[in-house]
Amino acid sequence: MEIFFTQLTNGLAVGGIYALIALGYTMVYGVLKLINFAHGDLFTIGTYLGLSLLTSLAITDKLGPVAGVILLAVMVMCLVGIVGILLDRVAYKPLRTSPRLSAVVSALGASIVFSNAIMLVYGPSTKVYPHDILTTRVLDIFGLPVPVMRLVILLTSIVLMIALYGFIQKTKIGTAIRAAAIDQDAARLMGINVDRVIMLVFFIGPALGGAAGLMVGLYYGQIKFTMGWIYGLKAFTAAILGGIGNIPGAMVGGLLLGVIESLGAAYISLAWKDAIAFVVLILILIVRPTGLLGERVAEKI
Amino acid sequence: MLEIQNLHVTYGNVEALHGISLTVEKGEIVTLLGANGAGKSTTLNTICGLIRPSKGEILFQGQSLTRMPAHKVVTHKITQSPEGRRVFGILTVEENLKLGSFTSKNKTRIKNSFEWIFELFPRLAERKNQLAGTLSGGEQQMLAIGRALMSNPKLLLLDEPSLGLAPVLVNQIFKTIRQINKSGVTIILVEQNARIALKIAHRGYVMEVGNMVMNGTSASLLEDPAVVQAYLGGNA
User: In this predicted complex, what is the ipTM?
Assistant: First the structure.
């Protein structure tokens, strides 16, 4: 029971991180029908920027751990969001009217450029976050141990997801994003500036990915310039699992993938952790090719 | 009100409009007739800014709309109900209508628009919370027109409003179009169904493969042997 519970909470925390990254894939896909393969590297940029800001500004010393980390998260999200907008400007926007494959190749190229740029700036070796910033306390819930940080990560990702969902569903700009995802020309006829919508999507998605990057850095402590590849792949899997283009789908897919992977690692084999995730993906796609929540075929975002 | 001079549009290497000219006066219903591929929708989409002309001028109330992006044209009070309706299927009827008022910030005006549209199309009021994709073809057409009216346009462009609708519904929609025009909205109507279009239009233009070949009052076009032969399916 204790193993199950530990793996469940661990899976949910990791799943929350997958879900945050998956939202970036799914939002960009929703509006542009493009898989932004450089998204995993934006996540890595988030972890490295977080480390740089943390050590150079020492805000957690000045403001205390809670306020310091929140401010840090805001800064990282804004910066990674801006990198996202620049990525679109340089790598995707000039190819908007080209065949879709061109943009995909451009995305793969951007991914390589990003990961090599990080290596050049920070070096190829593993970097370590300072580990005395956040609490290492473990709560006792009905006799089962739950590290506080695990809860914080899960709650933070859920809060960010709910905020995004509310923004997309309830606000005028959110409705404009949904409209542009369904039919760009019809959206233009409503007076929606679709270029602006795309820019916003390329800010929000990478910003959430950056937040996930910071959380991974703070939680696991060790970061490497290649880490965006596997996290990106897992989050992409999560987005497909939930139904790509569908925002709630990315959230559900992420959490589910995290839990399956974590339980699989405990009960089947740790070495097979990654394989289990992809086997589940294959099985679900055989049964439901549109993904779990991709039922409404026209649902794009 | 609207003046188009020598408009050329090119898709790749193919020229779709070979220098058409067209004028629309305030308060009119002007219909564009012609076979498939004559360039009627291209003309509307160029006015709206979805397509950029390679040559020519579009003037609306003395201001140039040539090469203005579509989302800016809307702020000049020109809207379109596009061919095939293009409603946002997975959004509700109400959300669709709200998007129609995307550019207007005046809340009371938006409220008035909602009331006006629900008066014109009571069916839409009944289906307010339904997803637009679940509406019938006729209801979707009503929604597309209603959505285009939400921003209180001065000029409304209607592309094939009768497409795929039963005759009873077509009559009903055209009655409403006339009613919209009477309330002060100038209309350009693109229609395959020339007979019904000429019945409500003041004037008409006939297009053939990217050229304007004829124009005149609806009465004169209805009597023109060439028009009767080609578009009204019979002898005069």
Answer: 0.93
